[in-house]
Amino acid sequence: MQPKISIVTVTFNDKEHLKLTLDSLLKQTYTDYESIVIDGGSTDGTLELIKEYNQKMNGKMHWISEKDNGIFDAINKGIKMAEGEIIGLLYDKYANKDVLQKIADTFDREHCDVLHGDLYYIGENDKVIRYWHMGEGKIKDGWMAGHPTLYVKKEVYETYGLYNTKYRNSADYEFEVRIFKDEKLKVSYIPEILLYMFYGGTSSGGIKQYLRSFKEGVEILKSLNVAHPVLINFKRVLIVLKQFFQRN
């Protein structure tokens, strides 16, 4: 039997993008999933939209709407609610209708603990703004997986813990360093576009935003006892900056 996948979506006053996200999920050919929507107490009609899609999903959706302490606190709430064997995050939209099927097939075939792939950042009319291609790699070489494409077995969260909300900009990187640094997990990579990521919010801060986030990188590496934190963070800066100029 293929695994049940829990899809965690966090949102706040972003009704239009949430609709695109949920439509994308409903179009998936793989149907053994649950949708977990964590709303931060929106006032723009998001709650009404969630209730509408709750009906469309025929019992597959679970949701809450309440104030949170930022995106990673909201993600943690969703992970705690998840009942699936595999947990993924979705704030954007899938590249095609078969993405979840490919993810399930890869977990089933390769018996991996974590899976990731590539993504496009898109603007209006789905225009590609930036391409994210990291491939396979290691934390010590400055590599990090494309976080929005990360699918993780629930038992990994149970073993390694949830997101550290101390890092408001870089909790995703801290989580990846924590689970990947010792190279104990089996990691699989799907070498194709899995996701179209909406270019806005934290994704549109540009180079300056990334450079601010990178300041936390050295602190994260030191806190997790990773050798040569300054060198590793410098490598990561170069790799991520390269993504701004890569298109395919």
Task: Summarize the structure in words.
By secondary structure, the protein is of the alpha/beta class. The protein is built from eight helices and nine strands. It has helices at 15-26, 46-56, 71-81, 99-110, 154-160, 171-180, 206-223, 229-243; strands spanning 5-11, 33-39, 61-65, 86-89, 93-94, 114-122, 128-132, 151-153, 187-198. Strands 1, 2, 3, 4, 5, 6, 7, 8 and 9 form a nine-stranded mixed β-sheet that branches. Strand 1 (5-11), helix 1 (15-26) and strand 2 form a beta-alpha-beta unit. Helix 7 (206-223) runs antiparallel to helix 8 (229-243).
In short:
The chain contains eight helices and nine strands. It is of the alpha/beta class and 248 residues long.
Topology of helices and strands:
Blueprint: E1 5-11, H1 15-26, E2 33-39, H2 46-56, E3 61-65, H3 71-81, E4 86-89, E5 93-94, H4 99-110, E6 114-122, E7 128-132, E8 151-153, H5 154-160, H6 171-180, E9 187-198, H7 206-223, H8 229-243
Parallel strand pairs: 1-2, 1-4, 2-3, 6-9
Antiparallel strand pairs: 4-8, 5-9, 6-7, 6-8
Helix pairs in contact: 7-8
Which key phrases capture this entry?
single chain, 39% helix, nine-stranded mixed sheet, 8 helices, 248 residues, alpha/beta
Parts with pLDDT < 50 across at least 5 consecutive residues = none
SSE pattern: EHEHEHEEHEEEHHEHH
Radius of gyration from CA coordinates: 17 Å
Mean pLDDT: 92
Q: How many helices does DSSP assign?
A: 8
Tell me the overall shape.
globular
Rounded to the nearest angstrom, the distance between the terminal CA atoms is 35 Å
Counting DSSP E segments of at least 2 residues, the number of strands comes to: 9
Beta percentage is 15-25%
The helix content, as a percent range, equals 25-40%
Describe the sheet with the most strands. 9 strands, mixed
* Content-based structural category: alpha/beta
